[in-house]
What does this fold into?
Amino acid sequence: NAGVTQTPKFRVLKTGQSMTLLCAQDMNHEYMYWYRQDPGMGLRLIHYSVGEGTTAKGEVPDGYNVSRLKKQNFLLGLESAAPSQTSVYFCASRGNRDRAYEQYFGPGTRLTVT
Amino acid sequence: AQKITQTQPGMFVQEKEAVTLDCTYDTSDPSYGLFWYKQPSSGEMIFLIYQGSYDQQNATEGRYSLNFQKARKSANLVISASQLGDSAMYFCAMRGRSGNTPLVFGKGTRLSVIA
It folds into this structure.
């Protein structure tokens, strides 16, 4: 199992450009999450999904959109990037069976917006 | 709403000594779970330990133990016999067990282990 993977690992954008971050998991997990991590702020939830075709807003959803068309994939989109979106983005997933409490994280995507 | 507070931005500990990282929480859920994650300088999030609010005993995983005091709403992480490889950021997190609530994280504590 690859677990949770994120593409790309690094990206530099100019203000106003758009991009999509891909998260994929091969554990057949129901729940998937996107977080951002900024210095001194811990991890803050952007959006999450409780199943294929569903999405919900987290703590800091503005400026982001998400889609969960397939159970194994959770996409995070930035339509018009801003310097305030410079951050490290983590995807995570969780099942609802054995060890359902454990949330598995991807390796992160470091995004810089200039 | 759930909230996690970690009041120690940074901690130092001598190698082979024990260290306690503080975590307090606030929630109105009667049932919830508490977590600790480690983030080394390489950046990945590593799950360490879990405590359910109705678990009778404090959770332990190797050198990690969770000192759970429900009445005080605290879930401190105790690392015994610190090693240089324990130097990292440590995050406390919680989630309500009801429904599909996501994890809520504290701001973290940076632990530095000194030789």
Observations:
- DSSP finds no helices and twelve strands in chain B.
